[in-house]
Amino acid sequence: MWPFTLEGHGVWLSLYLLTFCLHAVFVGYVLIGTGYTLVQAVRKVEDPIAERVRDRLPFMLGCGITAGVAPLLFLQLLYQRHFYSANLILGPRWGAVVPALIVGFYALYLAKSSEKWRRLALAVGTVCFLFVAWSWTEMNRVMQDEPAWKAMYAAGDRLYGSASIAPRLGLWLGVMTTMFAAVAAWSSPGAERTRLAIFGLAGRVVAGLALVVIASDGIVATHGWLYLFVAAVAVELVGWVLMLRAPGGTGLWIVTAAGSAGLLAGAVIREAPRLAILEAPRPAALEAGGFPVFAITFVVGVIVIGWIVKTIRTAR
Amino acid sequence: MDSIPYYPVNEFGPLMKGLVIGGVGILHVFLAQFAIGGGMLLYAFERRAQAGDQDARAFVDGYFKVLVLVSFVFGALTGVAMWFTTIQVGARTIGLMVDEFHWLWATEWVWFSIEVCAGYAFYRFGSKLDDRARRRLLGLYAIAAWMSLFWINGILSWQLTPGGWLDGDGMWAGFFNPTFWPSLLFRTAVASTLAALVACVVINTMDLPRDRKLLLIRAAARFAVPIAAMPVFALWFLAAIPEDSRSWLMGGSMPMTMFVGVAAGASALIGGYVIVGILLKRLMINGATATLLLALAFGATAAGEFVREGARKPFTVRGTLYSTSLTPAEVEQLRRVGATTHDPYPLRDEARYPSPQLIRGAKVHRALCDACHTMRGSNGLVELVTTWTDEQLRLNIAKLQRTKGFMPPFAGTAEDVEALVQLLKWEIDGTPAAWPTSADPIVLAQITRWLDEVGTSPKGGR
Fold first, then answer.
1. A294 close to B (CB below 8 A)
2. Which residues of chain A make contact with B5, given a CB cutoff of 8 A?
3. Assembly ipTM
4. Which residues pair with B12 in a beta bridge?
């Protein structure tokens, strides 16, 4: 099924999209979670959701960064020349992404351990993660705008400054809010889930508004994925409403299942325009060995990580 | 010529690109190796704790927080930084590595994911788990961390010694290349030693009587014993690298020889102190001395990485890709069509140059020199060639691989050589507002003869 094929780029593209979705769940939790705990810290409100989120943020960022290495790898197989060129054109500003992540990471630890510095640390973390999100959004756009490369390079521009950046970032912030609410709801009791359901719905509204702006530039054919996306989001909205009415019911399961389907469909739709610049597979990459080793290691890894999760659930 | 991918080139002020990638790389290698050794050491101390040593238990819980906060956060992120920095300084090199080894890189990612999950699980829930679960989690963490090294070591050592891969024997021949095992064993010994030194620092921060600290220190110092085998691994590595690379390390290039000496000397001092002082003479090591030894270890790591990187010259992937990001076949092509004919990127400071020939020279510099040289900063060309005569400049650039054995062959025409010569002369003369164009057919014919004489083979063969 398009674009998941076993020929040429198919396997790389499939793995890129799947690992990108995994990465998005973690970083969505981190970005929105940091912002949420900041707001609650500034309001000086005692909020069990914020406490739990703050406690988990460093771990979730670690997972987000680790999960992000895989799509970064496959991105270099699919769009090597475009990705490298955009990276080089954005240059040192792009290089600031890693220091921002390091500062953000330590800020999360500080926010967790020090009440005195909590608000400042969370504010710094929020700014750092917003900067990274904006930079990736910009990178995605620069990659696809080859005609602009020469002029940007010659002028030494480190900012793309396209009007398309803001709505895309807005879309992501909306999507991330919904993902954050869904993940956080799993460890929240009934009354808190009601509040998270409102967040989930609000995230969808923000994403929907941003999508309207983006779609005004035209929609690329996605072989039916758009219909799947719309259906998944519709079911998810039903799930959120059910959760509002009965927080302990099946709403969260529906939200999670439909949200996952929606995320995957959304990732495919997001990728569709970029497929126009998909580079011909390089022979060295096509002929590279090692896939069986990866496949076996992957299965072993899933089993081992499953064992780790099972083990910590037995913690007294 | 469309097959050569041209990338935008960034400059880093007075820093040559090798310093930029070296700075990030050394930090990353140091932290990552500490994390690997730390995993092994923690597993051993956990066993000690479970045998009844409560100080060892306190150490494991204290040390692990250091390990997580330093190596997880900084180590993992400098790993990502390595990727981005490598793109900045050698996009084609990292591209080739990704093309050739992506499934092994993905395999390494799985191990790294296991390492992170096991590490965080222990960090978060370790105190609430039974002994068996604790031991298993730490064992898993240690194995996963070392497996991560196993995979990445094959990819990195392939750059210097691709082995049978060059003869078409496939990826596995490149992965299990001639320097794979000595390099892996050497790095494992380094990782173990670093963990021992950091442990000595941490133990000194613990609130324990001196005799109990000494017991822990002696237990940790045993992890530095593999340093005694490092000379054997180093000699094995030296024997396995290409002859020309070996000759530079053994006196052919004094900076590289000096760095070999720094790495060997610092390692000998650390090994001597730990094995003779702590283990044989039963001396105490205080926090300040342990920190000093750790700083020496950092110096040794830095010098070792410099040597490893330098030994690859003039290639970034031996026999395949020069430090100019060109393949040998592309060098031959560019000798015919010119170094910058198909370069789509204009200069950022074109208005600075008073003539088209100097603009061409600046583009040649950007394409062929910028990877390793700056104009006036570190490894600056102006400093290097300022005393050369015009004929020396032309001859030395045309026959670049003979000028210095670790330089790649010049990848351009006689006109490119002359444009670069004029650019260097203009820079040496203080960048005057006007500069005459040099197009003497006799001079160009002489440069062409030199280019033809020297050919496009590297001095040191493949």
1. yes
2. 81
3. 0.93
4. B15
